[in-house]
Amino acid sequence: MTALELVKLLPLMARTGGRPEVTIGLIDGPVAKGHPDVEGRNIRELPGGEGGACAQLASAACRHGTFVAGMLLAKRGSAAPAICPGCSLLVRPIFPETTSENEPLPSATPEELGAAVIECVDAGARLLNLSAALVQLPSSRGERALEGALDYAAKRGVVVVVAAGNQGSVGGTVITRHPWVISVAACDLRGRPLSESNLGSSIGRRGLSAPGEGVTSLATDGKALASSGTSVAAPFVTGAIALAWSEFPAATAAQIRLAVAQAHGFRQATVVPPLLNAWAIYQAMAA
């Protein structure tokens, strides 16, 4: 079984490739827009503090941003999942390209994350994909800034999807505990949580699981690359929501979130979230 089959994305992908008015804010690394499988896609850059385009193709930041962008917007038939190629992507880089390419995931401060969230919301994003580790434990000031940014996204009706993290811990962060956030844990192709995926009560109550083991997407050298972790699980959820929103463009963020909740049923007191069911989200919207 493939990752797309596991989370019931294929029937939804057969219905639509997404609409350009559904804009996904990608808070990540910069994207190598010259890759042949994303060239010509609806990608716009918010320069931010780290610049919008890849200056160093081999950097961890560029590789990470390009990989996630490929999962969402690569052309159908590429090596990437290419979930929502008809949607628009708003890239807001937060990772410095000076990071060693051997580091698995660049990181950002809580203040940087909060600023990026607000900028993406103000620039017209309808949902955000955030796969970032915090470079430091939030101070009370940093925590307030990040909470305020997530509150702002909620007030503006922007859905926020975040990677749960790869520390293999049980608990939560200022991000995953926020009531508006949909946290994504990583699982294998049998739906079992990966040992490195963070879990927790807030993740179990409001989050989802998605494939995060050996997922293939785009590399910055024009080829393909396999990667694992919650960073690659989150775009499955983001892409599913983007496709559902494309089918029901007049829906509000509250209606989208309600459909996500209805599609995944009653939540028991568990730290493990249910597996994404993209087709059930569509059916909940259609009902």
Overall geometry comes to globular
CATH architecture assignment name: 3-Layer(aba) Sandwich
Strand content: 15-25%
In which range does the helix fraction lie? 25-40%
Count of β-strands? 11
Counting structural domains, the number is: 1
Q: Return the string of H and E elements.
A: HHEEHEEHEEHEEHEEEHHH
Major pleated sheet:
7 strands, parallel
Neighbour order of strands in the largest sheet: 2-3-1-5-7-8-9
How far from one another are the termini? Answer: 28 Å
Explain this structure to me?
- The protein is an alpha/beta fold and 287 residues long.
- It has one domain (3-286): Rossmann fold.
- 34% of the residues lie in helices and 17% in strands.
- The protein contains 9 helices and 11 strands.
- It has helices spanning 3-6, 10-15, 60-73, 110-122, 140-155, 201-206, 230-247, 253-263, 278-286; strands spanning 23-28, 42-45, 88-93, 107-108, 127-130, 133-134, 159-163, 181-187, 208-211, 215-218, 224-227.
- The chain has a 7-stranded parallel beta sheet with strand order 2-3-1-5-7-8-9, sandwiched between helices.
- Helix 3 (60-73) runs parallel beside helix 7 and helix 4 runs parallel beside helix 5 (140-155).
- The longest helix has 18 residues, at 230-247.
- The model has no long low-confidence stretch (mean pLDDT 91).
